[in-house]
Amino acid sequence: MRSRMIAVTTGFLLAASQPKLLPVWGYIFIAVSILLLRLRYPDPSSKGMMLVIAGLVYSSLFFHAKLTSDLPEQFARTDWQIKGKVETVKYTDNQFVRFQLIPLEIKSVSSSINLDFKPERVRLAWFRPDQKLYIGQEISLVARLKPPHGQVNPKNFDYEKWLFARGINAVGYVRQITRAERNGGSVADIARHWINQTIVNQFKNQQVQGLYQAISTGNTNLLTSDNWETLKQTGTVHLAVISGLHIGFMAGMGWIIGMWVLRRLPSVSSMPYLLSISLAAGYLAISGFGLPAQRAFIMVTVLLLTSWRGHFIDHWTRWWIALVVVLLIYPMSVYETGFWLSFAAVALLILLSASELNLIKLFCLQFKLLIGMLPLYLVFFAGVSLVAPLINLIAIPLFSVLVPLLLIHLIMSSIGIELLKYPLSILGEWFWITSDKIASFNLTYVSVELSDLLGISIVALSALLVISRIFAISRTLIFIVVLPLLLGVVFDGEHSKPLKIWIYDIGQGLAVFLKKDKYHLLYDTGPSYRSGGAAFERAVLPHLKSLRVETINDLIISHDDNDHSGGRETVYSHFDVLNEYSSRLSDTSKWQLCHAGTRWLVEGVSFTFLHGSVGSNDNDRSCVLLIEHGDCKLLLPGDIGKDQELRLVNALPRVTWLVASHHGSNSSSSHEFLKATQPDVTIFSAGYANHFNHPHPLVIERVSKLKGEMLNTAEQGAIYLESDLSSGCSSISLREEQPRLWR
């Protein structure tokens, strides 16, 4: 039985790893062919292959159904009337809210669009909301939609995969709310709203309110970014996100009550099982049916059902049953970080479990879990909390009391009994005070890139230690295997590396990072958002952190427009900037004007300003930078217009790479400018479905006449350029290098 489930799971994983999906008929052809072969040659050993193919075909067809429900590209930025039910709500502040909507009715505002569009979910932003939204609320609105699309950058959160995994078929923003029901909804929706409101009324400390809303209804709106950072530093994020731990608490509470009833009514032998599943299901409904909670509920249900009526099924078989059931219900779970973490943690617990556990053994178990989970932590988070085992040793028992205690208090407070209010306030405040104190120590969380030798060493050590628990492998042998890797970390020799340049997919803006050995240059920083924050934080910063960049030798802000300078403060807050150039002087003494003719040479790379600081407007004053290394040349013209381009024509060399002026606006990229530079590759840094219509069709036409290659960050993702004195000039886009079926 277990081998069959492994075969089916293999099929699911193969389906998820496909870079592109075949046509539907392709999978049907594969399934029919394998079936005919099985009938023609009934070899018992082929049964496993049949199950692998079954998992592959089932999952692939599921993916097809999800992708074909997406809003087509040609209907990007069109308006739709939607009536739907609010599924999730996240307030950034009083001026901005993001929410997911399950459409009940949807039609285009334009009569010229005749499209049978039936999305499973849409994700919307609402600026300056004039009313509160609640989970379960039914609303009608007009929204401007576009297909699910995410920026693709190295070491970046894959937003597009996140949308795909959650079945979101369109994203956009609210233009108008036409109707919003303030009451109604299911019993679970009403209960959820009442619980959230009661918590706010009962507890005055906002941190406590946020924590208790998170663990009771899954509402995390009151948790601040500082709260999340504290949870991350202490390794307790899983306590504030309703998942296996919380569902397990409720199932355990149901079991205890059920056993109490069973002792008094021996005839109802199924009571512990029924109450466990019922309480877990009720808690799942109130929490909003989040994917982690659904996964946990399935695992708990499988555990209980397989032990009902005295059936004996070993833990590993139960684990595989739960895994297959989760994948059958929702094959896209394989794209969820929580899926891997939860099943890996349970597998390790099965592997490491002991019959008797005292305090010392519990701590050892926590430490072994940390070691065993290290590879996944490095893959998903590029870091690990060093204090997590000790904190969780205290926090998990604490939350096993807090969750049922909080729910009991909420029920009692509805009839005016508030005996538990003060103890819960004290416990909640104590948790945050203690966590903040521990997180204040800088060494509580360690970041390690999996691409580093150190990261590989840690993964190897973790894997071997876990294997040694199964097989009697000597610890000395483990040390001998890992030692060469660790020595490689210590004696990582210095040698000259190629010039590396990244042009980031940062939306409607520009950010270019250059690295040559230990020299770092940043040209522009992308836009900031009216909802708060800057694109640099999510598009560029994770990559620079992974490269262990601490110093920016030269920061160049081409001009003051927000789409080029919006991330400047983020750069200052994370890096030590040695030199700064701009087309205008700032109030800081470090700034220098980018005068034409300014030139410097670093690590064999030549940098020359061809223009800057003069012009009739900000765009025309842009710092124009020429970068040369060997036979490779890159020109960064900022947002200069045609007039400035014409003034530069006689000074321009032929270049390998050209970042198109002003994102491909028709006011730039003149015929004369393009003829002078003759770029092999022209790169447009533009936002997806931007309302400026960049790059302009006429610009694309002018560039296409040069017979060179065109790349657009909105379509190809981040662009990587490399200049190597031995192998020459090369360029590749991230979407080309890393194809994914959801892109």
The third-level CATH topology of the domain at 499-737 is Metallo-beta-lactamase, Chain A
CATH class of the domain at 499-737: Alpha Beta
CATH architecture field of the domain at 499-737: 4-Layer Sandwich
Instruction: Categorize the overall geometry.
Output: globular
- Average per-residue pLDDT, rounded, comes to 85
User: What fraction, in percent, of the residue positions are helical?
Assistant: 40-55%
Layout of strands and helices, then pairs:
Blueprint: H1 2-16, H2 24-40, H3 46-67, E1 78-93, E2 96-108, E3 121-127, E4 138-146, H4 159-165, E5 168-180, H5 187-202, H6 206-217, H7 225-234, H8 237-240, H9 244-264, H10 271-286, H11 291-305, H12 315-329, H13 337-352, H14 359-381, E6 383-385, H15 388-413, H16 421-439, E7 445-447, H17 453-470, H18 475-490, E8 499-503, E9 512-516, E10 519-523, H19 535-539, H20 541-546, E11 551-557, H21 562-565, H22 568-574, E12 576-582, E13 591-593, E14 599-602, E15 605-611, E16 624-629, E17 632-636, H23 642-648, E18 657-659, H24 671-677, E19 681-684, H25 697-704, E20 709-712, H26 713-716, E21 719-724, E22 728-733, H27 734-737
Helix pairs in contact: 1-3, 1-12, 2-3, 5-6, 6-16, 7-16, 9-10, 9-11, 9-15, 10-11, 11-12, 12-13, 13-14, 14-15, 14-17, 15-16, 17-18
Domain Metallo-beta-lactamase: 506-687
Protein name: DNA internalization-related competence protein
Domain ComEC/Rec2-related protein: 216-466
Walkthrough of the structure:
This protein is of the alpha/beta class. Among the domains are: 2-67, no CATH class; 73-185, OB fold (Dihydrolipoamide Acetyltransferase, E2P) (Beta Barrel), CATH 2.40.50; 453-490, no CATH class; 499-737, 4-Layer Sandwich (Metallo-beta-lactamase, Chain A), CATH 3.60.15.10. The protein has 27 helices and 22 strands. The strands form 4 sheets. Strands 13-12-11-10-9-8-21-22 form an 8-stranded mixed beta sheet. Strands 14-15-16-17-18-19-20 form a 7-stranded mixed beta sheet. The chain has a 5-stranded mixed beta barrel with strand order 1-2-3-5-4. Helix 1 (2-16) packs parallel to helix 12 and helix 14 (359-381) packs across helix 17. The radius of gyration is 29 Å and the shape is globular. It starts with a helix and ends in a 6-residue tail after the last helix. Mean pLDDT is 85; it is low at 485-494.
